[in-house]
Design brief:
The chain is mostly beta strands. Helices cover about 5% and strands about 35% of the residues. It has five helices and 45 strands. It is elongated.
Amino acid sequence: MGLELQFSAPRLRQIGPGESCEDGVTHSISGHINTALVRIGTFCRNGTVSRIKMQEGVKVALHLPWFYHRNSSGFSIANHSSIKRLCVIESEFEGEGSATLMSANYPEGFPEDELMTWQFIVPAHLRASVSFLSFNVSNCEKKEERVEYYIPGSTTNPEVFKLEDKQPGNMAGNFNLSLQGCDQDAQSPGILRLQFQVLVQHPQNESNKTYVVDLSQERTMSLTIEPRPVKQSRKFVPGCFVCLESRTCSSNVTLTAGSKHKLSFLCDDLTRLWVNAEKTISCVDYRYCHRKTYPLQVPSDILQLPVQLHDFSWKLLVPKDRLSLVLVPAQKLQQHTHERACNTSFSYLVTSSAPSHDLYFGAFCPGGSVEQIQLKQNSSVTLRTFAPSFQQEASRQGLTVSFIPYFKEEGIFTVTPDTTSKVYLRTPNWDRGLPALSSVSWNISVPSDQVACLTFFKERTGVVCQSGRAFMIIQEQRSRAEAIFSLEEEVLPQPSFHRHNFWVNISNCSPASGKQLDLLFWVTLTPRTTDLPVVIIAVVGGGALLLFALGLIIYLVKKKKKKMNKGPAVGIYNGNINTHMPGQPKKFQKGRKDNESHVYAVIDDTMVYGHLLQDSNGSFLRPEVDTYRPFQGPMGDFPPSPPPICSRAPTAKLTTEEPPSCIPSESESEPYTFSHPNKGDTSNRDTDIPLLDTQEPVEPAE
């Protein structure tokens, strides 16, 4: 026979080990299996447990404070037919609420090969979801530990789940849950125990909608929907569940790549959930990846979910010392600083990872002056949202990554300042300082009609080097003039003006503990103005040039008219007259002014010393002659390299004065040239050759 305990209002609430009831009134209920005592649980008032059915005998202990006056037990006993299991606990809900329940003997092990059932009575207009808070499984020799659900309307009753499976949710109406033990291993039995929660709440509009997230074409992407971190409250809070295929529900769900997933939500406030996703883009063969471009965009399937996206991270992996990365945004980016904070609904967080340290480059949002970011090694880019309005601003996202040839600096920023506002820039790892022996550069472009002003936030960096030197280089890309500053010893430069593109390079030493290197600077643009003397000189020069051109045109026109006024020359042939002009015989038949015999481009040695260069066969051995070839390499596309030691001075100024002694002088690097003869050395005498040889006339003899 079975016994049934019926509890009048208020019903009971089960508590766990170490917990106590607020009023101090508890009911401890236990039973027997043969001679072994089995504890069903300890209960307080004001709960959902209305009945407990036991097989064979039952023991109920009522504990009261000494000052509590009570003349009734609070329950009644009735006979019942055999329940064919250890016990049945009935939990009745009249409205929204939750109940936490535990297996027999909790937290110790559930009796071997026993069956325990919970019956839940839920109003038809509400929905129930089950979640396991904690559980352990034992070592089974026979059978299998499991939980079984009897769900009204299901065609597969009972539905069987393992304890580690996601449990059912969004269930309408009454249902049963049963825990089945197994035959345990005698040598190492282990323990079976379970603590779970049932949450009953009103159905939400989203519970009837199904969302599809297609990850079938992805290989390295995962997506997690989970609750936001919130402070716990003692008041009843309806749960937020994500349901797969509308039945298996959980407070957090992870979707893996290679499959298509159907989701629905059972939640009164979807702002309590958020989405975090991650994708890996890696390059194994650098020959295949070189110059390849990949978009970094949130898929549309994620954007259509009714849950806000929190983070979407891309892990970018490159072959070591083979390739680097470049990030190019669809819209220029602004670096987030205290002086100019980002006010958009999302930002990109850029981090580079190295074996010894992680380098946080900063947070960047659309609407700035940064055109691209080059990263030396493996990096991660995280799109983080700050407001639900990201759904409307999602079109502004757009970032591409490309694999480029390897470079040695930690990062290079390409910046084109805005003419209407300051551009604030700061070194990576702002809070912790630039890592030791690392170098970062900024390539700053200056429009042709603007002048850039470079200003530093403070006078000194405060860095103290344990080894090495920390320095900064400011280099004009056009003139190659550069200034080198010691960041440990010198005062940072005063605001400087630049009319052309320039580099700012900051290199760190190995700093002493607590003295880190961090720099904040900004760039502003102003319209370029021309000095009054320059304008006057230009006007006068232009007027003089115009007058000269007019005079030249008038002269040429007059000269042409004079030629046209002269009659044409007429020649008459007379065959009886000797046309040979008497004169002095001359050495050359053609005048020097009519030929180029006096101009030598190159004197070929083989023409002068040819008889000395003949080999045994009579052919000439032509010597190899070096020729000057102009430099054709790139100019102005790479950051300045640290100067040689011999050229570093404690203080350098932006000047184009005489180069240091370790740099070749202009005369030493001059190519070979040929000098043309001076005009004064060229004889103007006539060297024409006469048409006929003539002799002076001989006087006749008398």
